[in-house]
Design brief:
Order of helices and strands: HHHHH
Largest sheet: none
Strand content: under 5%
Oligomer: single chain
Shape: elongated
Protein name: Transcriptional regulator, TraR/DksA family
Number of strands: 0
Keywords: Metal-binding, Zinc, Zinc-finger
GO molecular function: zinc ion binding
Organism: Billgrantia gudaonensis
């Protein structure tokens, strides 16, 4: 049984919206993650370093997005299995406000500490 105090349909809709947001962000930042190609005769060393740093940051952001997408998929699977809202450590219900704040949370506040 999913968390008794939550509207599961609303949670599913929120998770789907979040997933679409992340996918859109990923698509819009694709060019920032592309290989840095700079003409070394016309671009200074600091400009190249800035471009490489920007690329590294964009790649790190993409990794975080992909992790969030995996967490969303896992949350949707827990809903399908009727396990959404249960703490993965103690098995107690995670607080309603905690889940509303972050629908991807896996542990109750006591186990998260």
């Amino acid at each position: 049984m999913n968390h008794p105090e939550l509207d599961t349909d609303a949670v599913v809709a929120r998770l789907h919206d979040l997933r679409e947001e992340l996918r859109a962000e990923s698509e819009s930042s694709r060019s920032a993650r592309d290989t840095v190609m700079l003409d070394q005769t016309s671009v200074g060393r600091l400009s190249r370093m800035d471009a490489l740093q920007g690329q590294a940051m964009a790649k790190a952001e993409e990794e975080r997005r992909q992790l969030s997408l995996k967490r969303i998929t896992a949350a949707l699977q827990r809903i399908e299995r009727g396990e959404y809202g249960e703490c993965i450590e103690c098995g107690e219900w995670i607080g309603k406000q905690r889940l509303e704040w972050d629908p991807l949370v896996l542990k109750c506040i006591d186990c998260a500490e």
